Amino acid sequence: MSTPAQTLIQFIRDEIPLAHSMDLQLHSHDDSHIAIAAPLTPNINDKGCAFGGSLVSLMTLSGWSLVELELRKRGFDCDVFVAESTVHYLAPVWEDLLSEARLGPHADWNAFFHTLNARGRARIEVACQVPSENPDKPAATLSARFVAKRRD
Predict the structure, then answer these.
(1) What is the tens place of the pLDDT at every residue in 49-87?
(2) What is the distance between the alpha carbons of residues 139 and 128, in angstroms, rounded to a whole number?
(3) Contact present, 21 and 13 (Cβ < 8 Å)
(4) Alpha-carbon distance values, 59 to 32, 53, 66, 85 (Å)
(5) Among positive and negative, which fits the CA dihedral 85, 90, 96, 100?
(6) What CA–CA distances, in Å, run from 146 to 44, 50, 62, 85, 97?
(7) d(CA 22, CA 19)
(8) Rounded to a whole number, what is the distance in angstroms from the first to the last CA of the chain?
(9) CB-based contact 13:24 (threshold 8 Å)
């Protein structure tokens, strides 16, 4: 039996050709985070490390997944999109890719769902990171604002 997170990752792989080409896989998930992995080989650049476009795609998809899963968990049918994001590449990634997504430091699900109920759309900040060999410093980060809009 597949979990809602596994079902979502399969949906992403089926509906987004890039995600299928990257070979995205669910790494882990709980109530506060989701982590998505991809092997290095299909995401490599000319230097032999992870391609920056793959890193930002992986982080964006992990952030989107965090929001989408929470909406599904609470029974909301919404379109979710990234409204804006800022990415920082801090170190090369020489191994398989992993992106961990969590709510941003000032984000709150209760406020998000209150606004969604009242206005039919809401936004929330998500923080994503690609870990590095140094546990105190990620290899890449993405700060993004995702918007959910109720479908009519």
Answers:
(1) 999 999 999 999 999 999 999 999 999 999 999 999 999
(2) 11
(3) no
(4) 16, 10, 11, 10
(5) negative
(6) 27, 25, 11, 9, 22
(7) 5
(8) 31
(9) yes
